[in-house]
Task: inverse folding
């Protein structure tokens, strides 16, 4: 006997009710979600698998190993600290608790002075000379935040020209350009300058 429409609907509902609930590693419930796109804030749940947000919406029937009650709280993308000096402190304590507790998940370092390239005798007791070596040291240490760095023009000038008020020679300019090129190939995101500081203030612009 063919199933009536009502019977088919009842069967479908029964099957749906017996289906296993969606499973996540972490479930953030009831928060006010601001997604960073400019869209209005909405109350929603977030289901996380691994290190990725898998689903955003009504996950009232879902389960997770860890459930976070975000009622009354705002859930937003991690903040970016655009001017940080954590490049060395991250090697001491990679958890970056002072940043993470404020919602910062990405840091840009290297402003006005960068940890590489290490040129000449800077009096530094470091285990690297290039950005490639610095990044390798960071990966070995392990950090909780995303890290970006610029190569500082003052670091380049101090290492190549020195700290006196003299113009760079064509050979020195070529050397600094080569260091910038290598830094960018190693993973630096750009060049920074601090024109109020020595030796940047002696640069001709």
Result:
């Amino acid at each position: 006997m063919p199933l009536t429409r009502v019977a088919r609907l009842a069967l479908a509902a029964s099957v749906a009710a017996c289906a296993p609930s969606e499973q996540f590693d972490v479930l953030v419930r009831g928060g006010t979600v601001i997604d960073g796109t400019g869209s209005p804030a909405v109350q929603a749940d977030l289901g996380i698998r691994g290190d990725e947000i898998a689903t955003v919406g009504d996950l009232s029937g879902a389960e997770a190993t860890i459930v976070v009650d975000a009622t009354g709280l705002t859930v937003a993308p991690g903040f970016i600290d655009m001017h940080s000096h954590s490049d060395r402190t991250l090697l001491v304590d990679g958890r970056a608790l002072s940043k993470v507790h404020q919602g910062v998940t990405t840091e840009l370092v290297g402003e006005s002075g960068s940890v590489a390239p290490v040129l000449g005798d800077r009096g530094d007791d470091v285990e690297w000379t290039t950005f490639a070596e610095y990044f390798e040291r960071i990966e070995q240490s392990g950090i909780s935040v995303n890290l970006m760095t610029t190569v500082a023009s003052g670091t380049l000038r101090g290492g190549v020209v020195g700290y006196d008020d003299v113009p760079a020679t064509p050979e020195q300019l070529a050397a600094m350009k080569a260091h910038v090129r290598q830094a960018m190939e190693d993973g630096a995101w750009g060049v920074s300058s601090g024109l109020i500081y020595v030796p940047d203030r002696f640069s001709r612009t």
About this structure: The beta strands are 23-33, 42-49, 52-57, 63-69, 74-75, 79-81, 104-109, 146-149, 151-152, 191-192. The chain is about 30% helix and 25% strand.
